[in-house]
Structures are given as structure tokens and as C-alpha cells.
Amino acid sequence: MSKVTVNFIKCAMIYFALAMILGVTMTIAGPNYPLRPIHTHFNLLGWMSMMIFGVAYHILPRFSGVPLWSDKLSVVHLWVANIGLIGMAIGWWLQSQGVGFVPLHIFSLVQGVSVVMFLVNMFKTIKVGPAFQAKP
Ligand code: HEM
Ligand code: HEM
Question: Can you tell me which atom of ligand 1 is nearest the CA of 30?
């Protein structure tokens, strides 16, 4: 596996662990702000999306029979996705402290840019391959 795949999968597992801690905390303390949206997005943008990104970077070029369009872009994506998600978590916390929406808006945009990086790389990579034929 490439370094970017391993790192995405490791990040996914770390966010899963953090999300579980927040989830269990909320079962005890009750659903609250900002823990709920942080829990939600550590699970959905961290655990699930990053696991998908890691596996997709490994497997989709192989299914297509071509190399990934840009390895460099996938590494930038890894960093920008993490900065975006951690920033969003901090943004939700700052909002709960009365600081306002601006940090959350900025890091949400960063997260959005990271998603576009993945989409561009994958649209440029995936190709129709020969149909799978089972051996008689
Ligand atoms: C140890 C496992 C988990 C625990 C203890 C846990 C706990 C919680 C709690 C206490 C809430 C607040 C519920 C409320 O608002 O009444 C919540 C919300 C939520 N959780 Fe989890 N959770 C867990 C795993 C997951 C996973 C694996 C996902 C998704 C992959 C997930 C997605 C969500 C979402 C989307 C919400 C917000 C739901 C809403 O808006 O009503 N959770 N979770
Ligand atoms: C660029 C990426 C994303 C941004 C900027 C974003 C932002 C937000 C914001 C600001 C909220 C409202 C939270 C609140 O104040 O209560 C929200 C809620 C929610 N988002 Fe996202 N989101 C993103 C991606 C996703 C993805 C990929 C999923 C699912 C796979 C998702 C699932 C949810 C759910 C279930 C809620 C409602 C539950 C909650 O409030 O905790 N989001 N999101």
C-alpha cells in the first residue's frame, strides 16, 4: 500500500477512537453542543470518509489499470482534510464559547476544498476497464 493509503487509514482509526470517546461521553452527560457535531463529523468525515479515501487511493487505480492521476495531490489532500476536520472541531468549540461562526466557516471551506481534491484526482483516474468474466 502507498504511504497516503496507510496514513488515511491510520487517521480514520484515530478519528473513530476519538468519536467513540465523545459518543460514550454523550451517553453519560447527554447530547450536547459542541460534542454532538464533533462526534458526528469525526465519525463521518474522519472514520468513514478517510477510510474510503485510503482504500479508494489504493484500489480504484488498480481496478482501472492505470496509476493514480496525481500522487502529489493525494498527499496534499491528506493534509488539507486533516487540517479542515481538526479546524472544524476547534471551530465548533470556539462557537460554543461565544467566539462566533468565522473559524468554523473558514475550516469548513478548507474541508470542502479537500473534498474537491479527491474528486478531481478520482475523476481523472477512473477508467472503464475490460468486463470481468468468470472462468467456466
Ligand atoms: C460507541 C459508539 C457510539 C456512541 C456511544 C454514540 C453516541 C451518540 C450520542 C449519545 C449521540 C447524541 C444523540 C442525540 O442527539 O440524542 C450521537 C449522535 C450521533 N451519532 Fe453517534 N455514537 C456512536 C457511534 C456512531 C457512529 C459509528 C456513527 C456514524 C458512523 C455515529 C453517528 C452519529 C450521528 C450522525 C449523530 C447525530 C444524530 C442527530 O443529528 O440526531 N455515531 N451519537
Ligand atoms: C465539507 C464537509 C462538511 C461540512 C463543512 C459540514 C458542516 C456541517 C455543519 C456546520 C453542520 C451543523 C452542525 C450544528 O451546528 O449542529 C452539519 C451537520 C451534519 N452533518 Fe455535516 N458537514 C460536512 C460533511 C458531512 C458529511 C460528509 C456527512 C455525512 C457523511 C455529514 C453529516 C452531517 C449530519 C448527519 C449532520 C447533523 C447532525 C449534527 O448536527 O451533528 N456532514 N454539518
Answer: 10
DSSP 59-102: HHHHHHTS--S-HHHHHHHHHHHHHHHHHHHHHHHHHHTT--SH
Report pLDDT digits (tens) over 116-131: 999 999 999 999 876 6
Q: CB count, 10 Å around CB of 10?
A: 12
- Listed by start position, the domains of the chain span 3-125
Contact partners, residue 96, CB within 8 Å, separation at least 6: 33, 34
Name the grid cell of 128: 472503464
45 C-alpha vs ligand 2 centroid, how far in Å? 9
Cβ–ligand 2 contact at 44 (below 6 Å): yes
